[in-house]
Design goal:
Structural class: alpha/beta
Distance between the termini: 44 Å
Length: about 300
C-alpha cells in the first residue's frame, strides 16, 4: 500500500493512502533507522512510502517498509546529540518563509540561514512579509528587507489576515503544488493556513505580552491539504536554522547575488573572506553586493561552517 507522510511525531508517522482519505499511524522498521544513522528521522513529511498493515490490533496501524526516491529535501543541523541532520520536509515545489519585521521581530540572519538551506537543496524560496497591516511605507526595517530581497530576485508576498491583503494571490500561487511553510514562533503560520482554507482550523495563540515573542502552537511538522488542490507543510516555529556542514567554498553559491562574481575570483575555492583578487569582496566594496547580506554570509561561514 502506497501513501504519503502527512505528519511526523517522532515515533509515529501518519500516512495518507493513495486515492483515499484514510490516514494510518505507522512506525519505521529498524533497518531504516540504521541506514539513516546520521539523521534524527529516517522519513519525513512529504515522503512517499510503502506500508503494510499490522494485524491483531485494536487500532489500525502500519509498518513503513519502503521509502521512494525523493525529488528534494530540506535539512537542518540536528539539535539532538548523536545525529548530524534533521530532515524538515521532502518532495517540495517550493518553500515559503514567513517574515514579520515586528511583532515578533525576524532577524535578517534568520532569513538568510533559511535561504541558504533551501538554495543548498535546490528548493525555490519565496518570502511572505506577514502582518503587513502593522507597518507602513516609513518602516525603515521593512523597507530595508523588502528592497534587498526584491532586488536579488526573490518572489515576495505581502499578507495580512486582518485586511486579507495578498491572500488570494498566495492561494493562486500554491494551487496544485506542495510548499513548506517556515518561520519563527508567533509570525502567524497557523493563522495564515486557517485563512487560506477555512475548513482547516489549527489552534493559534497570541504573542507573549511580556516579551512580544511567539508561543509554539505547532509541535510537529504536518501537511495540510487545501481545497484548491495544493498542500502546505506547517513546521514548528524555531529560533534559528542550523546549517549542516558544507565545504566553506560552497556557501557563496547559495547567495544568489554572489554568483556573477564567483567565477571572476582568482581562486576556484575562494571563500570571499581575505583572499587576494576576490571579485565578491570587490563587489561588496563597490556596492554591487549589499553589505548586510555579506555580513550574514560571514556570520554563517564563521559560526556554522567552522
Amino acid at each position: 500500500m502506497k501513501g504519503i507522510i502527512t505528519k511526523s511525531t517522532g515515533s509515529w508517522y501518519y500516512v495518507k493512502l493513495d486515492d483515499a482519505t484514510e490516514v494510518i499511524p505507522c512506525r519505521v522498521r529498524g533497518k531504516f533507522r540504521l541506514q539513516n544513522y546520521n539523521t534524527t528521522n529516517p522519513v519525513a513529511v512529504g515522503d512517499y512510502v510503502e506500508i503494510f498493515l499490522e494485524v491483531n490490533k485494536k487500532e489500525k496501524t502500519g509498518i513503513i517498509t519502503n521509502i521512494y526516491d525523493r525529488k528534494n529535501a530540506i535539512l537542518r543541523k540536528a539539535t539532538k546529540s548523536g545525529a548530524t541532520y534533521q530532515i524538515i520536509a521532502t518532495n517540495l515545489d517550493g518553500a515559503l518563509l514567513m517574515i514579520t519585521p515586528h511583532h515578533p521581530y525576524t532577524p535578517m540572519g534568520f532569513i538568510d540561514r533559511f535561504i541558504v538551506l533551501a538554495e543548498a537543496y535546490n528548493v525555490d524560496v519565496n518570502l511572505i512579509f506577514h502582518k503587513c497591516d502593522l507597518y507602513n511605507e516609513n518602516d525603515e526595517y521593512f523597507n530595508t528587507l523588502y528592497n534587498i530581497y526584491n532586488q536579488i530576485g526573490y518572489k515576495i508576498f505581502l499578507t495580512s489576515i486582518i485586511t486579507n491583503n495578498g491572500i488570494e494571490e498566495l492561494k493562486n500561487y500554491i494551487k496544485d503544488k506542495t510548499f513548506l511553510l517556515a518561520g519563527q514562533s508567533g509570525v502567524g503560520k497557523s493563522s495564515l493556513i486557517n485563512k487560506l482554507d477555512s475548513s482547516i482550523q489549527i489552534k493559534t495563540q497570541e504573542l507573549s505580552d511580556k516579551y512580544k515573542k511567539g508561543r509554539h502552537t505547532t509541535t510537529f511538522a504536518e501537511m495540510h491539504f487545501l481545497y484548491n488542490g495544493g498542500a502546505i507543510i506547517d513546521t514548528p516555529g524555531v529560533k534559528e536554522f542550523g546549517i549542516p556542514k558544507f565545504e566553506t567554498w560552497e556557501l557563496g553559491h547559495w547567495f544568489r547575488e554572489f554568483k556573477p562574481f564567483i567565477s571572476k575570483c582568482k581562486y576556484n575555492n575562494c571563500t570571499h573572506v581575505n583572499e587576494p583578487e576576490c571579485a565578491v569582496i570587490s563587489a561588496v566594496e563597490s556596492g554591487a553586493i549589499n553589505p548586510l547580506r555579506y555580513k550574514n554570509y560571514l556570520n554563517i561561514l564563521l559560526e556554522d561552517l567552522n
